[in-house]
Each structure stands twice: as structure tokens, then as C-alpha cells.
Amino acid sequence: MATGYAYGQLERALRTAASAKDGATRARARAKAGRWQDVLTGITDGTLRIGSRTPVADTPAWVTLEVTHGGFATGRYVAEVPLHPAEAALPAAGPGTTDRERLNLWYLTDAGLAALRSALATETYRVEVPEDAALPIVAWLLDHGHAEAALDLVAELRPLLHRLRLAPVPGATPRPAGALVRLSTVGEVRETLRAAATTPAIAAMQETLKVWHPLFDRLVALWCDTVDGDLPRLAEDGSVSGGWPCREWPEDWARRRARWLADHATASARHTASTAHTHPKSNFARLHRALLACEHDSAELTGRDVGWIRRALANTVTKHGAPGSEARAAVRAVQATVAARPTYAELAAALAGRLDRYPADGGLPEVEEVIGEAPAHLAAKVVRAWEAPIEELVARDVITSADVLATVLPQITAQLLAANLEDDRLAALYAQTYAAFRRRRGLLLLDLEHQVRIEELPWIGALEPLRAHRPDAARAARHTLTQTVLLALGSWPQAILPNTLVRELGALAKQAGTPMPLVEEVAADIFTGTFTAKWRAAAEIAGGALAGTLYARYYDLPATWPAAPRPRWSRAFGKQTADDFAAVCVARAEEARPKRGFGSVAANGTVLEQSQILTTQNLAVLVDTLALRPGLRASAPELADGVFTWVVRRLAMRVDNHHAALQTVKNAAYAWRQALYFLSFCDEPAQRAAVDRLGEQVARAGLEDRFGPAVAGLAQVVAGGRFTESGTTADGAGRRFLGWTTGTHWCLPERAAGLHQR
Description:
Layout: H1 2-19, H2 23-45, E1 65-68, E2 72-77, H3 85-88, H4 99-106, H5 110-122, E3 125-126, H6 134-143, H7 147-157, E4 169-170, H8 186-194, H9 200-224, E5 233-234, E6 240-241, H10 253-270, H11 283-292, H12 303-320, H13 326-340, H14 344-355, H15 368-371, H16 376-382, H17 390-395, H18 402-408, H19 410-418, H20 424-438, H21 458-461, H22 471-491, H23 499-511, H24 533-546, H25 550-555, E7 568-570, E8 575-577, H26 579-588, H27 601-615, H28 619-625, H29 629-652, H30 658-679, H31 684-700, H32 704-718, H33 750-757
Antiparallel strand pairs: 1-2, 3-4, 5-6, 7-8
Helix pairs in contact: 1-2, 5-6, 6-7, 8-14, 9-10, 9-11, 9-13, 11-12, 18-23, 19-20, 19-22, 19-23, 22-23, 24-28, 26-27, 29-30, 29-31, 31-32
């Protein structure tokens, strides 16, 4: 499976590179193809084990790996980079087999340790990958009486000293700390803006308006001056009337001709974006060819050639007016106005110039002055560097999803976790290391493996005994955890919390002294058929919190969970597993299996969906552990309505691809589950009203045939009814809405279902 996926990605990247019209896209596609080639080579020669938390042979888990889409390691170490110019300038001329090893060993000398201490004192460094913090922590340990821990750390790092950068590049600007976050640094945004290029079509248009149209008007004027009588024009029937060219030859005509040809040659050498004027049948090309043959007169031209000159003049004079006329001047004035407008690349370069006065490593304290009158699509790039509270960035649509929220939250979490270290310099280093660690891309893992945790980094593990647990830091972490959960649920109530955010919430919960069984979303194509003990613990919390509610009735949650059996230690997975929880999920999934499909991706999906239903995919655990019920009860009706609206709009979208249609139904069912959780905080009249509003939306969207059974099923449950074992109401009109099935989903549009049948 891994090889097939990687090969498909390689083919896609190669196709993109072959069809790309601009160099930047082509270069990115080729780089991506190179990474996938590395993946395939590693799988083939056995140096890569896809699915393992140590996928690269002879490489410890803590090494930061280059990871492609889907969690595939390429085999490259992210911290294995050439020396930076600032590093090459350091006096590292000692022993070692590589420049990197010589530099790392130099950092362990008195002079090198002094340089690290100075960097820690002034905070003039930036940790880009977690490995950058290793040797600075060695220096700190030596300075604070922990020589044995420092030596143990160096011994663990020693096998990779010749490959990895283990100290930050000196001279960077300190990163600001606090409760403000940003999506990108000023430098990153500036680089993106300066990389903007004008599309070929726009460049051709600008060139045509600025260069070739003025040249064409001069060319037309040259030939019009040779016309005897009225200028040629087109009649309604397409015939040409008026005088003939090549009858009059002004005294300065040869001089003007020579000058025009020289200007044309210069323009042709300098301006190559537009080619329309070179088309052999264009008016420009016909008049140009004729001009080349007429140095003094038309002796070299045939009667047919003169006829084409006359028709070309008639074409342009009829369409735009004679040279020098008001009509032609008006057309060219409008075109000049269009040509004078700055291009996307010019606007981007201007914005990049405004950013030059801000430190590249920092953020923007405000954005209005920088953005000015910039168009929205460019302003959106600039605001990525805006440094502001998370709530404000969400309100301004800078943070647009829970996934994006998860990328910026570590900037705050890092400060909270660092607060448990008493030394301010070490705390600052830890905060940067944590943020860099969270930027590591996750691996594709099988057999219940978990991603590397930050304490598994040897240099961070060496600090664990030194961490205190301060009450004020715990309170701050709980406050941040609470506010983040409320923000995510209120802003994107239709979306389950992504795994990246779940991991960050888990870190905050641990810091707050409030551990909770938060569960991740598991991909159906790698599901191994069992769950760890935390899934059962989360289901127990959800079952107790939701007993007797609409959610519990709709999904037929177990009334009680028996006393938790002793978790079984699985030799296959090396973990404790909750086999009884897995068995309940499998049994409940029978409803979604009209066809045999055990072991298939769809069958796995039906089991995983039941695990999400039983645990509410973290909603109940977070809400009840953090005591959020009072606040959620007030906003629940609005949240439920918002999710129902999202579901109807999503299902109403036209989708012809069968796989995309299945994905749409699955996402709608997951959102539906969130809506029912929120609706469970409402009283029965509010629930009835919400269902009525939902029914009206479904009717307006023309989805009654497809989605009416789901609305009818919910209405029956609100009224006190229950579903049968097959997931229908007693009268057969209503159905329980689930996202996965091993057969053809009843909610699919007919065209998508037909594609599946074919």
C-alpha cells in the first residue's frame, strides 16, 4: 500500500512539473518529485520502514526527519544542512571528519561554550529545528552544576555530531514572547511577496498595450501617408472602399521608415512576452512585411501585396479610427489607463518594501499602515505576519480553521510550559525549542504507535528533573486551555478537533494538572482493529455526562459501562488495549454493514465512527472536565443551528466524483454528530424548533428526497422515539444519519451513486 501511494504521488508531481507554465511551479513540483523518489528508493532498498516511529535505519526517534504528505519519511534529516555563513566564520578548525562535526566539537571547547553562553544571555538566536537547542543546553547544564547530565547528553549526541546542526545560527533577532501569536514571520511573508510573478497572460497584455500598440499606430500612420485619397474602410458587406496605398511617398517617409524599423528591432529584442503581433495573418505582421520590402517605393510589391496593405488599413481604421483621430486617441487612452495599473507582482514588491523596516524574525504590531490600499488577496498575505491575540486573529479571519489554530497555539503553549523552569534564559530556550518541535511533521504510524514526544528529545529529557510545577503556571495553562476550547467550538462548531490541536490541548491539560483522555482521529486505512485504554475512559466520561440526553437516545449510547476490566497488554502492539471497547464498536457497526466488508477500509470506517460516537470525539471530555456546561448551554441553540446550516449547504453542493461524494457525506455526518451534541444542551421546545428550522432549510435546498429521512429520524427521537436495530424509525420514514457504510450510502446523490454502480 505504501509503495503504491508513494508511486502515485511521484507520478502526480512529475505531471505537474511537465505541465507547469511558470518556473516557480515547475521547480516546486520537481522538488516534490525528488522527495517522493527518495521515499520509493528507501522503501525498495530497505532503509525506510513506513509506519514505524523510527522509519529511517540506524536513526533514533528524536531526529527530526523530512516528512512528505501522508506522513512518509524521505530519509533526509532536517537538521543536516550546510554551514551557514555565520557558522563558517567561527574558528572551528579542530578535529572532525566533516565541517559540521568540527563546528559541533568546537562548541564543546571553552571558546565555543562561551559563545553559547553569550547567545543564551542575549537571546540572539533562533531555534529553527529542535536539534538547534542541544548544545546550548549542554552549556547550561555545565554552568549549573549538572556536569554528569551534560556528559550523558554529549555521549548520546556523539554518533550524529558529523551530520546534525546542534546549535542555533548566531546573530538572529530575539523572538518576542507573550500572549500574541502570528502565522508567519515578517521575513517569510516578505519572501513570499517578492517571489510573486506576473502571469504570462497579464505580462503579454501589458506589453501589448505599452509597446506594440504604439508601434502599430506609427506603422499604420506610415502606410496611411502613402494613400491617394480617402483612407480605406470596410463596408458592411466586408468589401473595402477608399483610396489605395503606395500612391504617395512623402519626402521624410524613408527616414521615418528606417527609424520605425530600428525601434521595432529594439522592442523585439527587449520585449518577448507578447507574440500576437508576430502572427503572419495579423494586420501588424502584414504591414511589417510590406514595410521591409519598401525602402523607397513599392516596386518590390505585387498587386496582391498592395491589396493586403489596403485591407489591413481598412481593418484598423474602421475599428479604431484613423491615426491621430479622436476615436483612436480615445481607445488608446483607455488602454493606457489599463496598462498603467500596477501588476500583481509590482503591488507585491511594493508591500515587501514596506515590510523592510520591520525585523525579519518578528511579527507586525499592526497591519493597516502596511496594507494601505492593497487589494484583498495581497492584504491576506501580509496579515499572516500580524502579531495579535488568537481571538482577534480568528475574528478577522486570519485564523480560518481549527487546523490553523493548532499551528499558532504552540507559540502560547511554549511560554506556559517554559514557566516551570526557574532560569529565565533556559525558559526562553525551552520555549523556542517547544515551538520548533511542534513544527515537526507527524509520521504515518501503525500498530498504535505514538508520535515522538518532546521529552524524548535527549536535551529536553535532561531538563525534566529540573522542572518545577508552579501553581500560577498551572492556572495560566488551564485558562488558555479553556479559552482555546471555547474558541474552537464557537468558531468551527461543525469540525471535529484535528489531531494537531488535540495534541496541543493535551499538553496544556498536563501543564494545568488536569490530565484527560483525549483521543485522536484514526485513519480508516491504517486502523488495526483495536484501541488503547484512553478510548474506553473517554467513552465512560461521555456516557455519564450524556445519559438521558438527545445525543444518548439518538445514538443509543450504553446506559452504563461495566467496571473497566484490567487492560490487556498486547505483545503485538506493545501497549495496553481496551478490547471490550473495541468489541462494542464492532458490534454497533453492524448497522452500517449491509454488505460483508470486514477488513476493508469502509468496514474500518464504520468501527471508527462508532468510537467517535461513544467518545463524542473529545467534546464531552473537554466540556465536563473543564466545567464548560453553563457557558455552552447559553450558546448551544446557535451552535446547533450553525452546524445544521453547514450540513445542508455541504450536501447541496454538486459533486460528480464518487469518492468526493462519499467524503462529503462523511463530513456531513461528523458535523451532524457535533450538532446533536450541542442540541442536547437545549430543552425539548428548543430542540423541536431547531428541527423545524432544519426541515425548512432542507426543503429550500431541494434535499427532501435525499436528506429528509435524517430529519424525520431526528424529529422522532426529539419526540421520544428510538431507532430500530437497523437504524430506522418504526414507520420506516426516518433514518439514523451515519457517515460510513460498506454498501451504497442512502444519502448519496443519484449521479454519484450511479458512478459507483458503473
